[in-house]
Automatic annotation (TrEMBL), chain A:
MF terms (GO), sorted A to Z: 4 iron, 4 sulfur cluster binding; ATP binding; ATP-dependent FeS chaperone activity; metal ion binding
GO cellular component, one term: cytosol
UniProt-listed GO biological process terms: iron-sulfur cluster assembly
Protein name in the entry: NUBP2 factor
Gene3D superfamilies associated with the record: P-loop containing nucleotide triphosphate hydrolases
InterPro entries per the UniProt record, alphabetical: Mrp-like_CS (IPR000808), Mrp/NBP35_ATP-bd (IPR019591), P-loop_NTPase (IPR027417), YlxH/NBP35 (IPR033756)
Gene designation: Nubp2_0
Keywords, ordered alphabetically: 4Fe-4S, ATP-binding, Iron, Iron-sulfur, Metal-binding, Nucleotide-binding
Pfam families: ParA
PANTHER family: CYTOSOLIC FE-S CLUSTER ASSEMBLY FACTOR NUBP2, NUCLEOTIDE-BINDING PROTEIN NBP35 YEAST -RELATED
Source species: Pachyramphus minor
TrEMBL record, chain B:
Protein name: NUBP1 factor
Subcellular location: Cytoplasm; Nucleus
Entry-linked InterPro entries: AAA+_ATPase, Mrp-like_CS, Mrp/NBP35_ATP-bd, P-loop_NTPase, YlxH/NBP35
GO annotation (BP), single: iron-sulfur cluster assembly
Functional note: Component of the cytosolic iron-sulfur (Fe/S) protein assembly (CIA) machinery. Required for maturation of extramitochondrial Fe-S proteins. The NUBP1-NUBP2 heterotetramer forms a Fe-S scaffold complex, mediating the de novo assembly of an Fe-S cluster and its transfer to target apoproteins. Implicated in the regulation of centrosome duplication. Negatively regulates cilium formation and structure.
Presence of keyword ATP-binding: yes
């Protein structure tokens, strides 16, 4: 089993948002879920592991922000005046927003592992993990990396057709 | 080199290859690929091949009413599954024992299957090879461009919807094409407006808050092939495995598709004759 990093120890619940299909509203739901939970007074984080098409930064209007490093790893971007939502996405690591992340699986896997263990989330009630469509590298790596932690479960998103 | 020679030999009889791409999922790549295939195959003298390299979410078998079909092997390789005499299809969907089986593969295994699709399928003589791809800019996309570089790709058709969340990903796809030197035939904007069949009023279900594909194409100097309005009949046809162009010939969406298909054909034919001139 992968080692437990301390960065996720303060996270009470981890929820994966999945779908096989693209474009059904995973990122939209992840964002709305985070906002609704914050509205109820919870501390929320979103981990956006869609490396090719990261949508969450724009949805929360933080696409122009940058991430910094601290001793325990990356400091997530805090959203809003109350800073009650923390977000990590590859979107923040791109030099230009239109840069394509043209990576094969192994490179994607390495970054996802880092995203899971090396983000200094602090204390969170909920960490929502938004995923890309499919059942491939990102999904396998994310689930493997999250195994030592309190993975509450997955929400599956679809459309009617 | 031996591998390259193998692929080149297998694909030698393919005249035109069109990749259907998007950075974004769910914008209508497979829907468009199927319509393009049907549209081109309406000419009985043209041999059309549709290759579905979306390994995790293969939509083409259902859209072409080929669910449950299996791939047959012969001395000359894998046989495509034929929808019409002049329209053959290949998809991982045909290799699954059940349509709900998840293909949970990492990149290298996906690449291996894509290579097999190109190397082992006996497509025969093909006028148009259409390749439907999954969303993103990853293994499948790198591999198909790499493997097809032994032959020749006419270009990519990039599909989007009007909203910025889609365009954001599509700009990345356009950059991917530039990076791998893949010509862009143009962009198709799907779900572009909805005309109510009852009151005839037009609504923007996915508002183009940043100017839609039109603005993006202007900014990035790529061709806008056309806009296709939302028509519930499209989704229904896909679910039923019917050709939307045949089921709804009067729909404004059909008219749009037909215009776009014609422009793609013109691009390919023109390209071909330019190449011939060079030889």
């Amino acid at each position: 089993l992968p080692e437990r990093s301390t960065n996720l120890l303060g996270v009470r619940h981890i929820v994966l948002v999945l779908s096989g299909k693209g474009g059904v509203g995973k990122s939209t739901l992840s964002t709305e879920l985070a906002l609704a939970l914050r509205h109820r007074g919870h501390r929320v984080g979103i981990l956006d592991v869609d490396l090719c098409g990261p949508s969450i930064p724009r949805m929360l209007r933080v696409q122009d922000r940058a991430v910094h490093q601290c001793d325990s790893g990356w400091v997530p971007v805090f959203v809003g005046q109350d800073r009650a939502i923390a977000l990590m996405s590859i979107g923040f690591l791109l030099e230009r927003p239109d840069d394509a992340v043209v990576w094969r699986g192994p490179k994607k896997n390495a970054l996802i592992k880092q995203f899971v263990t090396d983000v200094a989330w602090g204390d969170l009630d909920f960490l929502i993990v938004d995923t890309p469509p499919g059942t491939s590298d990102e999904h396998i790596s994310t689930v493997e990396a999250l195994r030592p932690y309190r993975l509450l479960g997955a929400i599956l998103v679809t459309t009617p057709q | 080199p031996a591998e390259v020679a193998e692929l080149r030999a297998r694909l030698r009889a393919v005249r035109h290859t069109v990749l259907v791409l998007s950075g974004k999922g769910g914008v209508g790549k497979s829907t468009f690929s199927a319509a393009l295939a049907h549209g081109l195959a309406a000419d009985e003298n043209k041999q059309v091949a549709l290759l579905d390299i979306d390994i995790c979410g293969p939509s083409i078998p259902k859209m072409m009413a080929l669910e449950g079909e299996q791939v047959h092997q012969s001395g000359s390789g894998w046989s495509p599954v034929y929808v019409e005499e002049n329209l053959g299809v290949m998809s991982v969907g045909f290799l699954l024992s059940s349509p709900d089986d998840a293909v949970i593969w990492r990149g290298p295994k996906k690449n291996g299957l894509i290579k097999q699709f190109l190397r082992d399928v006996d497509w025969g003589e093909v006028d148009y090879l259409i390749v439907d791809t999954p969303p993103g800019t990853s293994d499948e996309h790198l591999s198909i461009v790499q493997y097809l570089s032994t032959t020749h790709i006419d270009g990519a058709v990039i599909v989007t919807t009007p909203q910025e969340i889609s365009l954001q990903d599509v700009r990345k796809e356009i950059n991917f094409c530039h990076k791998v030197k893949l010509p862009i035939i143009g962009v198709v904007e799907n779900m572009s407006g909805f005309v109510c069949p009852k009151c005839k009023k037009e609504s923007q279900i996915f508002p183009p808050t940043t100017g839609g594909a039109e603005k993006m194409c202007q900014n990035l100097n790529v061709s806008l092939l056309g806009k296709v309005p939302l028509d519930p009949q499209i989704g229904r046809s896909c679910d039923r495995g019917q050709s939307f162009l045949s089921e709804a010939p009067e729909s404004p969406a059909t008219l749009s598709y037909r215009n776009i298909i014609q422009r793609i054909q013109e691009y390919c034919e023109q390209h071909h004759s330019q190449e011939e001139k060079m030889i």
